[in-house]
Design goal:
302 residues; alpha/beta; two-stranded antiparallel ribbon; binds zinc ion
C-alpha cells in the first residue's frame, strides 16, 4: 500500500531546464524559504517522446541533494505521451510511447522520485472499451520490463479527448486489471476532478461524497500525490484551465475539507497553478498551512 501517514507536504511543479541538479537546488531553496517538501518535474522535453540519455551523473547529484533535504518528488511524463496508443494500429508508435514512459521510470529511480504521473489516455473518436484495452496493454508491456521502484501514477482527467479517466471506477478498475497493479498508483488532480463532474465541490456534502466514494472503491490508499489546482471553469464544464487555489470556481471550504481529510494525510500536495510573479505560490502555500492549522484535530488523527 502506498498510503503513508506523515506530515503536511506541499510544493509545486518546478521547471528543470534540462538540469536535474539545478531543479534540486531550486527545490532546496523553496524548502528553506517556504517550507515546501515535495515537488514535480519533467524528466525530459515534455513536448516530445524523444528519450533522454547521458543523465546519470546529473540525476545522481540531484538524488543526493533531495535525499539530504528529505524532499519527495514525482516526475510528470511528456504531454504527448498517450498510454491509450494502440499496439494493433501502429506497433512502431506504440513502442515509442512505451519507451518514453520506461525512460521516465528509469530517470525517476535515478533521481529518487516516487513515481511518474501519466494522463489517463486519449482516444479521440475511438471506442471507449478498446481504449481501456489499449491502456491495459501499454501498462502491462511497460511494467513487464520495469523492475525498479518508481510507480506509474495514473492521473484522472478533465473529460476531453474521448472522455476517459474521469471516474474513480476507471482508475481503480484499470489498475486492478493490469498484471502488476503494485507498480501502479494514482495522482488525483483537483481541477480535473471538479470540471469532469467527479467532485461536486458546490454541494455542502460534495467532498464527503467524494471521500466516501473513494473509500468504497479502495482508491485513497494508492494515491501518492495530489495536483492541488483550482479551476477557472465551472463544475462539469470539462475545461482544463487551472487557477491559483482560492481564486477559482472551487469553494475554498470544499478544498479545505478535501486536503485536511484523513484520506489525504501525508500525500504530496503539488501545485500546478499559474505562478503569481515574484512571490511564486507563497499565498497558496500559506492558505494550505492555515487550513492545516485550523484542522489540527484532523491532521493529527493519523
Ligand atoms: Zn495535473
Amino acid at each position: 500500500m502506498l498510503s503513508k501517514k506523515g506530515p503536511l507536504r506541499y510544493g509545486c511543479h518546478i521547471r528543470s531546464h534540462g538540469s536535474f541538479t539545478q531543479m534540486g537546488n531550486t527545490a532546496i531553496r523553496l524548502a528553506e524559504l517556504e517550507g515546501c517538501s515535495c515537488f514535480q518535474f519533467f524528466a525530459k522535453n515534455p513536448r516530445s517522446l524523444q528519450l533522454k540519455i547521458g543523465y546519470e551523473h546529473d540525476a545522481h547529484e540531484c538524488r543526493l541533494l533531495l535525499d539530504g533535504a528529505s524532499i519527495q518528488t514525482i516526475i510528470h511524463s511528456a504531454y504527448v505521451l498517450n498510454i491509450a496508443t494502440s499496439m494493433q494500429a501502429d506497433d512502431t508508435l506504440f513502442k515509442a510511447h512505451a519507451m518514453s514512459l520506461l525512460n521516465d521510470l528509469v530517470i525517476a529511480d535515478a533521481c529518487g522520485a516516487v513515481g511518474v504521473v501519466v494522463h489517463f489516455g486519449v482516444i479521440k473518436h475511438r471506442d471507449k472499451l478498446q481504449g481501456y484495452r489499449d491502456i491495459i496493454t501499454m501498462l502491462n508491456v511497460v511494467t513487464d520490463s520495469w523492475h525498479g521502484n518508481a510507480l506509474i501514477l495514473l492521473e484522472n482527467q478533465a473529460g476531453l479527448h474521448g472522455g476517459l479517466g474521469v471516474t474513480l471506477e476507471e482508475c481503480v478498475h484499470i489498475r486492478n486489471l493490469c498484471r502488476k497493479p503494485d507498480q501502479i498508483g494514482f495522482c488525483l488532480d483537483t481541477c480535473h476532478a471538479y470540471v469532469s463532474g467527479m467532485w461536486n465541490a458546490n454541494l455542502p456534502d460534495g467532498t464527503a461524497r467524494l471521500l466516501e466514494h473513494g473509500r468504497h472503491m479502495d482508491y485513497w490508499p494508492y494515491v501518492a500525490a495530489v495536483h492541488v489546482n483550482d479551476a477557472q471553469a465551472a463544475y462539469g464544464s470539462k475545461r482544463d484551465r487551472h487557477a491559483p487555489i482560492g481564486q477559482g470556481k472551487i469553494s475554498p471550504t470544499a478544498m479545505e475539507q478535501l486536503l485536511t481529510s484523513t484520506e489525504l494525510q501525508g500525500k504530496m500536495f503539488i501545485l500546478e497553478t499559474p505562478e503569481s510573479g515574484e512571490r511564486l505560490h507563497s499565498e497558496e502555500w500559506e492558505l494550505i498551512r492555515t487550513w492545516y492549522a485550523l484542522n489540527d484535530h484532523t491532521s493529527h488523527h493519523y
